[in-house]
Design brief:
- An 11-stranded antiparallel beta sheet has the order 6-5-4-3-2-1-13-12-11-8-7, covered by helices on one side. A 5-stranded mixed beta sheet has the order 18-17-16-19-20, with helices on one face.
- It is an alpha+beta fold.
- Helix 1 crosses helix 2.
- Helices cover 29% and strands 32% of the residues.
- The chain is flat.
- It has 2 domains: 206 residues, outer membrane lipoprotein receptor (LolB), chain A; 129 residues, 3-Layer(aba) Sandwich (Glutaredoxin).
- The N and C termini lie far apart (98 Å).
Length: 414
């Protein structure tokens, strides 16, 4: 009996030891797995940085580059799809330019040239020339052909390489039997600037992800895909027919005086000027989109009014909606009205926009002529009208500075 008891105890102790060893083993395996995972991530990111370094060095060695550029905007969440195409030539040999490069960019109707000092556009449809003899850096930010372009990559790759907050991964891929490297870079709530000189902080729920495809043999970019982790919206920029270190376009092609026989400055067209502060706001009568109702400026007499001119396919217009909703709530019960005037979109598109972005202020239709009366030349454009019907604020565009200024003017007027 004693032997049997000892045997049972030994078996029990051995069992406990085995369980204990298994627990230690599992913890050890988990720890090792985490170490290997971290090492794998670090290794992957170092490989990506190495690839980006090769591409960056390659781009910085170029004297010039010419390619066929296609950009596809596909915002399915905003019911918007558009494709643009250009032939782009960039020259990096001049050191006295504002941007660090010169360019000649051409699509089916427009040729845009920057010679390092002057910036001008040649319109083949109207045979007109627009000249900016003193461009600043900001005047290049809106150039569509620059968005996620090779210029962008040339400038931003060193920043991405040194960015420890970005998550980076790589994989091999094949397109049309050609070998490529696919780099995936998650930037969080940051967007790469047009010229690639830095990043813009984005007030969005989604994180931005850049997928950059590199051709293995040339170490040159083939495609940049900008996506997010919330929906299927994307911007795809591709570069084909790439030529590097080629013959420079003729010297005369860089100067607007070469084209003045065939292209003339626009005549009879004056850029609209915003209605002046201190002047009486032009009268209007428009239909409210979701009500069987007509509204006029006269109907709102005695209120401080924020007029918002907008169109559907406009990023800043979309970004302004949450703030307009906040203003509506903040000044509720006071003599304050937000009137949002759509310039030319259909009733269906206006309805889609309002439902999509949850507008809780009055939206009016068919405001093209009213926008012209107020001198609106871009979207969004805001006006604040005081209780006497005078314009006390006007401004185009939307950012944080405009947001705070608009709110301050409204509070003061109330």
């Amino acid at each position: 009996m004693i032997v049997k008891g000892l045997t049972k105890k030994i078996i029990y102790d051995i069992t406990r030891i085995i369980v204990f060893l298994k627990q230690i083993s599992m913890k050890f395996i988990i720890i090792l797995s985490l170490i290997f995972l971290q090492n794998d991530i670090a290794y992957s990111q170092s490989i990506v940085d190495s690839i980006l370094s090769r591409v960056s060095q390659n781009l910085n060695r170029l004297k010039n580059i010419k390619y066929y550029n296609t950009r596809e905007l596909n915002y399915s969440s905003e019911n918007y799809h558009y494709i643009s195409k250009w032939t782009s030539y960039y020259d990096f040999q001049s050191t006295d330019t504002i941007t660090g490069f010169k360019y000649q960019i051409e699509d089916s109707t427009l040729k845009q040239i920057f010679n390092g000092t002057e910036k001008f556009e040649l319109d083949d449809k109207t045979k007109t020339i627009q000249i900016n003899s003193s461009p600043d850096k900001k005047s290049f930010n809106g150039l569509s052909a620059l968005y996620n372009s090779i210029i962008t990559l040339k400038n931003v790759l060193p920043l991405i390489i040194n960015d420890k907050s970005a998550t980076k991964a790589f994989a091999d891929t094949t397109i049309n039997n050609i070998s490529y490297i696919l780099l995936t870079i998650t930037m969080g709530k940051r967007r790469i600037q047009n010229l690639g000189k830095g990043f813009d902080a984005m007030a969005t729920k989604s994180n931005l992800i850049y997928k950059i495809i590199i051709e293995k043999n040339s170490n040159l970019p083939f495609e940049v895909m900008q996506i997010n982790d919330v929906n299927n919206d994307f911007i795809k920029t591709s570069f084909t027919n790439i030529e590097t270190n080629i013959t420079v376009p003729s010297e005369l092609s860089w100067y607007y005086s070469t084209y003045t026989n065939d292209y003339k400055p626009p005549t009879g067209k004056v850029t609209p000027q915003l209605a002046l502060n201190g002047s009486l706001a032009p009268e209007w009568t428009l239909e409210v989109y979701n009500k069987d109702k007509i509204l006029s400026l006269t109907d709102l007499k005695g209120n401080v009014i924020l007029l918002d001119f907008w169109i559907k396919n406009c990023g800043p217009c979309i970004q302004s909606v949450p703030h307009l909703n906040e203003l509506q709530d903040k000044f509720k019960g006071k003599n304050f009205k937000i009137i949002s005037i759509n310039s030319y979109d259909s009733r269906e598109d206006v309805s889609w926009f309002c439902n999509k972005h949850n507008t809780n202020f009055s939206v009016l239709l068919n405001g093209k002529e009213v926008a012209e009366k107020y001198g609106v030349n871009g979207f969004p454009t805001f006006f604040i009208i005081d209780k006497e019907g005078k314009i006390i604020y006007s401004g185009a565009g939307y950012d944080k500075s405009i947001q705070s200024e608009v709110e301050h003017v409204i509070e003061k007027a109330l």
